[in-house]
Amino acid sequence: MKIQYYGHSCYAVELLNKRILFDPFIAGNPLAKDVDIQDVKADYILISHGHGDHIGDAELIAKNNNAPVIGAYEVVSWLENKGLSGFHMNIGGKRKFDFGTVKMVNAIHSSILPDGNYGANPAGFLVYGDEFSFYFAGDTALTMDMQLIPMIAPKLDFAFLPIGDNFTMGYEDALLASDFIKCDTIIACHYDTFPVIEIDHQKVTNAFLGRNKRIILPKVNELFSV
Ligand code: NI
Ligand code: MN
Question: pTM, whole model, 2 decimals?
Answer without folding.
Answer: 0.98
